[in-house]
Design a protein that fits this description.
The chain is an alpha/beta fold. It has helices spanning about 45-50, 105-115, 125-135, 145-150, 165-175, 200, 205-210, 230-245, and strands at about 1-5, 15-20, 35-40, 60-65, 65-70, 80-85, 100, 120, 140-145, 155-160, 195, 215-220, 225.
Length: about 260
C-alpha cells in the first residue's frame, strides 16, 4: 500500500483501489493500484483521484462502500473508494460522432477520416484553442496529453492508448464503437467527398491516371481529387479491419443508425 504526498501519519486518509486499466496513469511507485491518500477534509473525491494521476474522463464509476458517488463527493477519513475505468463501448454525446484530435495524433486523424468519421485536426492548435473548439462544436477531444484531460471545462475527452496509428485507431473504435462510412471524407481536410465526372477534372490528372482509372471523387472544400490508386489495397486493409471490429448501433426499433 502506498501514500501520496508527504503527510503526517495522523492526517485524514482515503484509500483508493484503482482498476488495472487506469494504473498506467499512476506514479510508478503506486502502480499496484492500492493507494492511501491524505486529504484536507474539504477537497472533492474527483480532486483526490486526479491528484493521484488519474484524469476524470478516464474514470467510469467511483464506489464508496459499494455505493456509487459523484466526483463532487466529499470523502471522509477511512473511506475506501474503488476507481473504475469507463465501460466500453462508451456512449458518445447525442448526434453524429464528432472528434477533435490534439497535435500528436495526425496519423490517427487521417485514419478516422478514412472511415468517414467527422474528425477535426490542426497541427498548430494550442491547448486553449482545442478546449474552446471541443466545447463550441460538441466534439470529443482525443489526446495523448494527460494534463489536457484534467481541464475542468472539457465536457467530453479521452486518452488515446498506443503509439502506432493502427493501435490508436483500434483503441478509439473499441472505446466508442462509432458508426463508420469508409471513403466518404477527405483525409486531408475532413470535407465530405462527392463523385465527380472524369471530364470535369481531366486537366488535373497525370496521363497514366487518366488512362487507367474512370471513377473519381473530389472534396468541395479543398478540391483534392481521389481515386483507387496504387495505395488502395493498403487502405482497404485498414478499412476492412476497422469494419470487422466495429459494432453497429441500433435504436430500440432495430434501425441501424449508421450513415
Amino acid at each position: 500500500m502506498c501514500r501520496v504526498g508527504r503527510h503526517p501519519v495522523t492526517a485524514p486518509t482515503v484509500r483508493l483501489l484503482v482498476d488495472d486499466p487506469l494504473r498506467m496513469f499512476l506514479r510508478s511507485r503506486n502502480r499496484g493500484g492500492d493507494l492511501l491518500v491524505a486529504h484536507d477534509g474539504t477537497s472533492s473525491l474527483g480532486h483526490l483521484v486526479q491528484s493521484a494521476g488519474v484524469p476524470l474522463p478516464e474514470v467510469g464509476r467511483l464506489l464508496v462502500g459499494g455505493t456509487e458517488v459523484a466526483p463532487s463527493y466529499r470523502p471522509r477519513h477511512g473511506d475506501v473508494v474503488r476507481v473504475e475505468a469507463v465501460t466500453r463501448p462508451q456512449p458518445l454525446p447525442p448526434g453524429p460522432p464528432r472528434f477533435l484530435l490534439d497535435v500528436h495524433l495526425g496519423t490517427l486523424a487521417r485514419r478516422l477520416r478514412l472511415l468517414g468519421l467527422d474528425t477535426a485536426y490542426d497541427s498548430g492548435a494550442h491547448d486553449d484553442e482545442l478546449v474552446r473548439a471541443a466545447v463550441a462544436e460538441g466534439r470529443v477531444l482525443l489526446t495523448k496529453d494527460r494534463g489536457l484531460l484534467r481541464r475542468r471545462d472539457l465536457p467530453h475527452a479521452a486518452y488515446v492508448r498506443g503509439t502506432r496509428g493502427d493501435d490508436q485507431l483500434s483503441d478509439v473504435l473499441d472505446r466508442f464503437a462509432p458508426p463508420l462510412a469508409p471513403y466518404t471524407r477527405c483525409t486531408a481536410c475532413n470535407g465530405i467527398l462527392r463523385a465527380v465526372a472524369k471530364a470535369d477534372i481531366a486537366a488535373r490528372l497525370e496521363p497514366g491516371t487518366a488512362r487507367n482509372f474512370q471513377e473519381f471523387a473530389q472534396c468541395p472544400a479543398c478540391e483534392r481529387v481521389f481515386w483507387r490508386g496504387a495505395h488502395a489495397r493498403r487502405l482497404d486493409v485498414v478499412v476492412g479491419a476497422a469494419v470487422r471490429r466495429a459494432s453497429p448501433r441500433t435504436d430500440p426499433g432495430g434501425r441501424d443508425d449508421r450513415p
